[in-house]
Amino acid sequence: MRFSSKTVGLASAVITVLIWTGFIVIARASASRGLLPLDIALARILGASAVLLPWAWWLMRPARRAGEQVGSLWGLSPLPLRQTVQTGFLGGFLYAILAYTGFFYAPASHASVLMPGSLPLWTTLLAWLFLREKVAATRALGLGFIVLGDVLVGGASLLMAFDGGEVWKGDLLFMTAAMCWASYSVLVRRHGFDAVRATMAITAFAFVCFVPLFAVLVGLSILPTQLHQAPWSEILFQAVFQGVGSVVISGITFTQMVRYYGPVRSTMITALVPGLSALGAVWFLGEPMHWNLLAGLALVTGGILFGVRQAKKSDTSPAPAHVSAPPQTGGQP
Questions:
Q1: Which of 105, 139, 150, 213 has most Cβ atoms within 10 angstroms of its Cβ?
Q2: Separation of CA 201 from chain center
Q3: Contacts of 318 by beta carbon, 8 Å cutoff, 6+ apart
Q4: Alpha carbon 232 to chain centroid distance?
């Protein structure tokens, strides 16, 4: 059964927005269910690896049979070693650790503003710095709105630190995680990597480096873990949602969405994520929505939309395959 391109594009957009929104709400809820941040990161990496690493090995099989030197990390990554390490450290290793740790300090409503909201800001700044991309006046104004929104949310948390509050730590981790994903995205654009191959590469790096290091540190009692106390159903859920859902499925659906709607309209669609995840935090987690969060959310969402509203219509044509999805992240899951 074949679906029309419109149906595929619409379904991809819905799935992407739902997974990115769910990533924020579920990651915050998981912070109170027993697993530690690195435990969740491990489940994410193992879940994604179970799908992507066999796929990568199969993808490179024809080239290996032809005697070509392809990929790295013993055939697990389809990219050269240097690019695998660069993208994998930022997009697969550091991003997951920073994001999941942030949810143990700050509420999901803060993550809604500071992670998907600040991603366009970091991406634009890094692209201007390293790719020499010009920033239009309207886009700069939109980024200004995003900065104001981030300051409203993060600044209030910073003031609370004088009274012993720790929410500011989570806010800082969310902002840093967004910067790491933006750096990964800029690297992908700079080298023109295919989105699927880049996702395979960051997963391969995280699997080869993080998993053995985690096992050694836990075995030496240096790193605490709650994996031995958590039910298997919780670990399996994290592996399926955080790994297969947030990494594999949303990566594919985002790419399909960009191919149909183009990068500009796709950005406008994903601008729904901050608002939806904030509402999810209020509805499912019972988090309060203070005035500064509402104002910051409005500024960030408006900044994203304002920054792309005057883009050329040609941007709605099919995008290059190397456009990469954030999970959250995602994000940017």
A1: 150
A2: 15
A3: 259, 260, 262
A4: 25
**CA atoms of 101 and 296, how far apart (whole Å):** 22
The first and second tokens of residue 106, run together, are 């700050």
Separation CA 141–CA 125 (nearest Å): 13
Angle, helices 137-160 vs 291-308, to 10°: value is: 160
Under 8 Å between Cβ of 109 and 287: yes
Which residues does 320 contact at the CB level (< 8 Å), separation at least 6? 192
Q: What is the pTM of this model?
A: 0.88
Cα torsion angle, 38, 53, 244, 235, sign: negative
Q: How many CB atoms lie within 10 A of CB 68?
A: 10
Distance (Å, whole) CA 291 – CA 125: 28
DSSP character at residue 318: P
How open is the CA angle 33-36-42, to the nearest 5 degrees? Answer: 110
Residue 221 CB burial class (10 angstroms; 0-12, 13-18, ≥19): exposed
C-alpha of 292 from chain center: 24
CB burial of 145-173 (b: ≥16 within 10 Å; e: otherwise) equals bbebbbebbbebbeeeeeeeeebbbbbbb
Q: Is residue 314 packed enough to be buried (19+ CB in 10 Å), middle (13-18) or exposed (0-12)?
A: exposed
pLDDT tens for the chain, 333 residues long, are 677 888 888 999 999 999 999 999 999 999 988 899 999 999 999 999 999 999 999 999 998 888 888 889 998 999 999 999 999 999 999 999 999 999 999 999 999 989 987 888 888 899 888 888 888 787 788 888 888 888 888 777 767 765 667 889 999 999 999 999 999 989 988 888 888 899 999 999 999 999 999 999 999 999 999 999 999 999 999 999 999 999 999 989 988 888 888 766 777 788 889 999 999 999 999 998 888 888 888 888 888 777 666 444 434 444 333 333 333 333 346
Which ranges in the chain belong to alpha helices (H)? 5-30, 37-59, 61-65, 81-87, 95-102, 108-114, 119-130, 137-160, 167-191, 195-219, 232-238, 250-270, 272-285, 291-308
